[in-house]
Amino acid sequence: MYVKKVAVVGAGTMGADIAYNFAMANIPVVLRDVDSKILSKAQEHIWDLIQGRVAKGRLGSADAEKRFGQIQFSTQDDDLRDTSLAIEAVPESLQLKQQVFRELDRLLPPLAILASNTSALSISEMANATTRPERVAGMHFFYPAHTMKLVEIISGDETDQEVVTTLVRLSEELRKIPVVVQECPGFVVNRILMASLAEALRFKSEKHLNPQDIDAVVSGRKLAPMGLFTLVDALGLDIAWDVAQILKRAYGDRFDPGTELGELVRQHHLGVKTGQGFYSYQSASQVKPPGPVSMSAEQQEELIDRFTLSLFMEASRLVEEGRASERSVDIAMRAGAGLPMGPFAAADKIGLDVVYNKLKEMSHRFGERFTPPSSLAQMVGRGQLGEKTGRGYFYYKKI
What residues contact residue 97 under an 8 Å CB cut-off, 6+ apart? Predict the structure, then answer.
């Protein structure tokens, strides 16, 4: 399907960034919001992004005006009627998103695609609010959407393959990296990251550590591009808490974040946006980046194992459920979470026999959330141990 014009509904930061991406690809876009003040802020934000490219010599002044002119800022429903694709980018409330989808279903042509930028909610439940569930899918951009490359394309229970193909091609036109996911709570990146965050929170509580201790190991060992608690503060503790509750209801206690995260949210300590989260941001001197590691060597190794293997276990569950392929998961975790290696490539590098034995030992200590997946046991049984044997989750040329 050819997409001639796009609507983005919701002009907050994510909606504005999504509209900017389409404008930079020279695709006409209507940015729609009921609040004219929010639209004005979005207009300023997008213009600043475009001018930033001009200042860096990546865009000429005339071309900048042309790209900005691709965006129509509107409070009117009628401006959406001739769009081929609408992407909702309203707050993470299923009821609100269903309401938006009902209205879009009424307004847009019968073959138009309705997409959601949700990070964790059910695409199928949104689709059920429309008369065209086969034309509904997820198109999840990552924050900040004007720089992050990953887009998760989520297929609901009734989504047509042609819709998925169209959104994949369109993402590539935006110079993004699309990864196709069969619907499940949290999709790929948020589901896997939240599993590792829950594990880190358990470890923190058990060992009576502060956030700096854990972030120093995670970032110092280059397990992730930044410390976990620094990341959660940047994303917003309220968002992390909401996603954790969705995942806990869906998958059980392995996603239980414990009491600390919820208590911070109740106190309205939501991270950078409120000036206080796991760290304080009231002044520059109060922001404490990871410093020297104060944990014992034994504690550090336990944290590394629990962090990396919680990532691997959730990634394995996704694949065994048929939600995504190993390659798609690894691409998503590198492009969307900034990991230096995807969970499956990392396991191949360590050695699948080593991973299997570690998981067996950890399942005895910490419970069934670390029980080795059957697919791993089968590969180890066949002698497919990763890089050292030339074959594991992926193939390797032996030199």
Answer: 88, 90, 116, 118, 121, 126
- What's the pLDDT score for residue 291? 58
Give dist(CA 226, CA 236) in Å, integer. 15
pLDDT tens, position by position, 10-19: 999 999 999 9
Structure token digits, residue 165: 């193909």
Q: Which two tokens stand for residue 67?
A: 């790209």
pLDDT digits (tens, 9 = 90+) for 122-165: 999 999 999 999 999 999 999 899 999 999 999 999 999 999 99
**Rounded Cα–Cα distance for residues 101 and 10 (Å):** 12
Of 193, 293, 183, whose CA–CA distance to 234 is shortest? 193
Q: In whole angstroms, give the CA distance from residue 306 to residue 132.
A: 43
Reported as a single tens digit per residue, the pLDDT across 176-221 is 999 999 999 999 999 999 999 999 999 999 999 999 999 999 988 8
Spacing of C-alpha 75 from chain mean position: 29
Whose CA is closest to 131, among 154, 152, 166, 107? 107
* Mean pLDDT of the chain, nearest integer: 94
Backbone φ/ψ region at 292: left (φ over 0), alpha (ψ -120 to 50), beta: beta
Do 183 and 157 meet the contact criterion of CB atoms below 8 Å apart?
yes
Neighbours of 305 (CB within 10 A): 17
Domains and CATH numbers, the chain: 6-182 (3.40.50.720), 189-213+220-295 (1.10.1040.50), 298-389 (1.10.1040.10)
pLDDT of residue 397: 84
Amino acid at 191: R
Rounded to whole angstroms, the Cα distance separating 316 from 372 reads 9
Q: Which of 227, 187, 229 is nearest to 314 (CA)?
A: 187
pTM of the model: 0.92
- State how far the Cα of 125 lies from the Cα of 127, in Å rounded to an integer: 5
Indicate which residues carry an active-site annotation: 119, 140, 152, 190
R_g over Cα of the chain = 22
